[in-house]
Specification:
By secondary structure, this protein is mainly alpha-helical. It is built from 12 helices and 11 strands. The chain has helices at 3-16, 60-72, 75-85, 100-115, 118-132, 166-175, 178-195, 231-248, 251-266, 290-306, 312-329, 358-372; strands at 24-28, 35-38, 45-47, 50-52, 135-136, 141-142, 156-158, 205-208, 215-219, 343-346, 351-355. Helix 6 packs antiparallel against helix 7 and helix 8 (231-248) runs antiparallel to helix 9 (251-266). It starts with a helix and ends with a helix. Bound molecules: glycine. Residues 53, 56, 160, 222, 232 line the site of glycine.
Length: 374
């Protein structure tokens, strides 16, 4: 067992024995270090004319338990993971958000991959159908936010969706139904065309005309400004295009993952962990986002593993990131209930700034696993 996994497992064990009272860990309270939890049924919705995400992170705690089971082979993790996914079933028909991929991949897909439990597979396929149902065929993209019939949100598409579509790649592999593959591929092509700028930075949110796919507006929700590059969105894109390349062999997706990685690496500060938005004018007096580092490192290690010698440079950069996370961001002093500290959930909303983020912990563990397979 590696030192990093050993340290992580001590936290996971503490949390697994804790009662989250039906909620799921989301981010740690920056003052107390304890997990702020959200109920599984809390879906995205408009509040006072503004979109709120709801609970999009509930899949990651089960995902951490599944990764622990895979790593240790200890039966107790399998039992905890199975228990933890039960309340999530309440969301399987949730058609208010693209986040159905984030909810059901780490929990049900990973669980099925490790146990071959057919019930988990059926639930994950149901979730994949709901995600596929959000495809706007005339516009050639997956609607990110809001119910499918909401005219105000029908045009919304975010860079994060690239890491929701692994649910569709998986559904295609399981069923051979090309609907899933085609939707994922067409969405990725549309994102490539519209959400990566000339300088290879990424756009967080765009609005399309649903009837034509014409780009109307570039926006952001969690980034510094509409024209800035939000670090976590960019790391979702690195991972998402790497998955797209893995599942299609399409060189355009490979090139996208490479240029996005180049941009990410070039804009990292000396300690290799990005500030929350690469363009925040307050840098260096600005929050870091360790989760963007973990997600980016995972994507680049996977890219390195997939694509041979040339991509070794991405694996190398990812290893610098992981070393920095291990040395300076992992909570060695037990000040919080999470594994990796100093993530930034949302700086504009002043939520979970300088916290552990449950998805940061999940992707950190994935990155450790990818690193050990180099
Ligand atoms: N909704 C995805 C994120 O906040 O990163």
């Amino acid at each position: 067992m590696t030192k990093s996994w050993k340290q992580a497992l001590s936290k996971i064990l503490q949390n697994a024995q804790r009662d989250f009272s039906g909620g799921y860990p989301h981010y740690t309270d920056p003052d107390t270090g304890t997990w702020v939890t959200l109920p599984p049924e809390q879906t995205g919705c408009l509040q006072g004319g503004k979109w709120t995400h709801g609970n999009w992170t509930a899949g990651f705690w089960p995902g951490i338990l599944w990764l622990s089971y895979a790593y240790t082979k200890e039966e107790k993790f399998r039992k905890w993971a199975l228990r933890s996914i039960e309340p999530l079933k309440a969301r399987v028909r949730d058609n208010n958000t693209h986040d159905i991929g984030f909810l059901f991949y780490p929990s049900f897909v990973l669980g099925f991959e490790l146990t071959s439990d057919q019930e988990l597979k059926e639930t994950a396929l149901l979730a994949a159908d709901i995600l596929a149902g959000r495809f706007i065929s005339e516009g050639k993209y997956l609607q990110a936010w809001g119910p499918s019939d909401d005219p105000n949100l029908m045009g919304s598409s975010t860079i994060d969706t690239m890491m929701n579509i692994p649910l569709l790649w998986w559904a295609y592999d399981q069923t051979g139904n090309e609907k899933y593959y085609n939707i994922a591929k067409v969405h990725a092509k549309t994102t490539l065309l519209n959400m990566i700028r000339e300088d290879n930075s990424s756009i967080h949110l765009v609005m399309y005309k649903p009837e034509s796919g014409q780009l109307i507006e570039e926006k952001t929700f969690q980034g510094y400004s509409n024209s800035s590059c939000w670090a976590r969105g960019h790391s979702w894109a690195i991972c998402g295009f790497t998955f797209a390349y893995e599942h299609t062999g399409d060189e355009e997706f490979y090139n996208a993952a490479c240029v996005l990685s180049d941009y990410f690496i070039e804009r990292l500060p000396n300690d290799h962990i990005p500030f929350w938005d690469f363009d925040d004018p307050a840098i260096p007096r600005s929050p870091k986002d360790s989760s963007a580092a973990a997600i980016g490192a995972y994507g680049m290690l996977k890219l390195g593993n997939l694509a041979g010698e040339y991509s070794a440079k991405y694996a190398k950069s990812a290893q610098y990131i992981l070393t920095s996370l291990n040395n300076n961001y992992v909570d060695h002093d037990n000040l919080t209930e999470g594994i990796v500290n100093h993530g930034c959930y949302s700086n504009p909303h002043k939520e979970g700034v300088d916290s552990c983020l449950i998805f940061g912990d999940y992707f950190y563990l994935n990155a450790l696993n990818q690193e050990s397979s180099i």
